[in-house]
Amino acid sequence: MNRVSTPAAAQPPAKTPRGRRGRPRSYLKVVFSPGVAPDKWFTRFDRRTPGWAIASAKLDRPLAAVEAGSADIAIARFPVAGVPREEHHMVRLYEEAIGVAASTDHPIAVMREVTLEDVEQEVVLYRTPVEGEVEPAAVRSALAIVSTGAGIAIAPRPLLRGLNHHGVAHCDVGGDTQAADIPGTQVALVWRKDRDDEVIQQFVGICRGRKEGSSR
């Protein structure tokens, strides 16, 4: 099984490993947003798809790799701008919880959930934008300041978990977040229509929960 973590490594390795019966393996190149946890899907694909394996990379802008042709399919956080629907397939997978991050000596460090009213007196260093996309780089920068106790950050909880900044704790935000103009985020599969084939569809089906041996 091939697991990689940089854009350059998303290409198949120079020495192609062989499957159980000695056949050379081909690679499905998958890129994904920080905070997405796709390992279970990768494992199932490798097990169920003879002659194929996943080559993966975590990228702040996974859709750019799909557009450039260096990746076959992206698991991306939405909303995101600049995805021509007429050229791409998109399959929504799930909605993400909203989270709040604060320093580890803040009371939320021992809480499972807070409401926005609980933190309304805090300095907000980052919040999920009402329009536009969540920028992982901006969240990283905010968390560096959050760790000092200077304020909080409100962002998708899986992203906060995935970035895992030292000195930062996080928990879910409950209550009516829409009334506070904090939009939700979703995770979706995106691939070019001209790249669609049975191997892509196999991976899409696995991500959507299709059981082994079942048809589309």
UniProtKB/TrEMBL annotation:
<comment type="similarity">
    <text>Belongs to the LysR transcriptional regulatory family.</text>
</comment>
<dbReference type="InterPro" id="IPR005119">
    <property type="entry name" value="LysR_subst-bd"/>
</dbReference>
<keyword id="KW-0804">Transcription</keyword>
<protein>
    <recommendedName>
        <fullName>LysR substrate-binding domain-containing protein</fullName>
    </recommendedName>
</protein>
<keyword id="KW-0238">DNA-binding</keyword>
<feature type="domain" description="LysR substrate-binding">
    <location>
        <begin position="24"/>
        <end position="209"/>
    </location>
</feature>
<feature type="compositionally biased region" description="Low complexity">
    <location>
        <begin position="1"/>
        <end position="13"/>
    </location>
</feature>
<dbReference type="GO" id="GO:0003677">
    <property type="term" value="F:DNA binding"/>
</dbReference>
<keyword id="KW-0010">Activator</keyword>
<dbReference type="GO" id="GO:0003700">
    <property type="term" value="F:DNA-binding transcription factor activity"/>
</dbReference>
<feature type="region of interest" description="Disordered">
    <location>
        <begin position="1"/>
        <end position="24"/>
    </location>
</feature>
<dbReference type="Pfam" id="PF03466">
    <property type="entry name" value="LysR_substrate"/>
</dbReference>
<keyword id="KW-0805">Transcription regulation</keyword>
<dbReference type="GO" id="GO:0032993">
    <property type="term" value="C:protein-DNA complex"/>
</dbReference>
